[in-house]
Write a structure and sequence with these properties.
Distance between the termini: 33 Å
Structural class: mainly alpha
Strand content: under 5%
Number of domains: 1
Order of helices and strands: HHHHHHHHHHHH
Largest sheet: none
Length: about 300
């Protein structure tokens, strides 16, 4: 998953478009959870780099079909190629970590820890972009990290290795989000998405000789292709949601990904959510929603003052 901004700046969306934006966001959460579930299924048999190669390559083709008719070759126009590559390297690492985590722990647990990414994004924005955190946001960060510890549930004598990979994904994804905040001032979502998918496909292709490749056949091949198609449409619908309504209206619905992950984890792997998972997930989600509310309130105040 990316944090790309929509193809055009969000400007006073019409009220009647907000419900449609929410529908697109909810639809994207179903697709993101499905893509993660399919990835968890396939990574049990195939190298993680191969699963991600299929996902990024097919997602690239899917997004190209959806984006190029509207933007044409202008989508490749950029003066920040090095930054696109650097961002894609971070995203490659993040996606590698989350797929490895999916192979080692329940789907819902990995997704819950993944939702701590906004906390890290806020932290990195303060460190690298000089954004002021303040006491309320700092408190939300501390509480959110406490929720992550609940989800990870490290014991005294053992450590959940899968949770460590999920946490590494959240940290890397948080840094990607902070990077995109700066890049989105000059780059459209279409450009950000196309370059991300292109570079990630190249990087996972280069990783194939290192981690191996097993020729998929039959149902597995369809599943691997399906991962890319589902993820590609999820990215597109997520962007459409943000183009129709402000983040404060549609952003909270993104957390429904966790609900679908719990359902899919129970249906296909028999994973029953524990009390600590539900409690930790609630804390992480509440912290993320608070940060989203603070960000939206700050932007609204700036617009009123201007």
């Amino acid at each position: 998953m990316t944090s790309d901004s929509p193809d055009r700046p969000i400007r006073s969306p019409r009220v009647d478009k907000v419900p449609l934006g929410i529908m697109f966001m909810l639809a994207s959460t179903v697709l993101f959870a499905t893509s993660s579930a399919l990835s968890k299924w396939q990574v049990a048999t195939y190298p993680f780099s191969e699963v991600l190669l299929f996902r990024s390559a097919i997602s690239l083709l899917t997004c190209a079909v959806l984006i190029l008719p509207g933007m044409g070759l202008a989508v490749f126009r950029t003066h920040r190629l090095a930054q696109h590559f650097g961002r894609s390297v971070l995203q490659t690492g993040a996606q590698s970590c989350i797929v490895i985590a999916l192979s080692l722990m329940p789907l819902a647990g990995a997704m819950a820890i993944n939702f701590s990414a906004p906390l890290f994004a806020t932290l990195f924005a303060a460190i690298f972009l000089g954004e002021r955190v303040g006491l309320p946001r700092a408190t939300a960060l501390a509480v959110g990290f406490g929720g992550v510890l609940l989800v990870a549930s490290p014991g005294i004598d053992s450590l959940n290795i899968g949770a460590l990979f999920a946490l590494a994904n959240a940290i890397l994804y948080g840094s990607v989000t902070a990077t995109v905040r700066g890049m989105s001032r000059t780059e459209s979502a279409g450009t950000l998405t196309i370059y991300q998918m292109s570079f990630m496909t190249l990087l996972f292709l280069l990783a194939t000789p290192i981690f191996g490749f097993i020729v998929p056949t039959g149902r597995d091949l369809l599943a691997l292709i399906g991962i890319g198609v589902v993820n590609g449409f999820g990215q597109y619908w997520w962007t459409r949601a943000l183009s129709m309504a402000p983040p404060s209206a549609v952003g909270p619905f993104y957390y429904f990904t966790l609900v679908w992950s719990i359902v899919l984890g129970y249906l296909f792997w028999g994973d029953v959510p524990t009390a600590t998972l539900l409690a930790g997930s609630s804390i992480v989600v509440a912290s993320g929603l608070f940060l989203l509310w603070r960000e939206s309130a700050k932007k609204s105040k700036a617009l009123v003052e201007s």
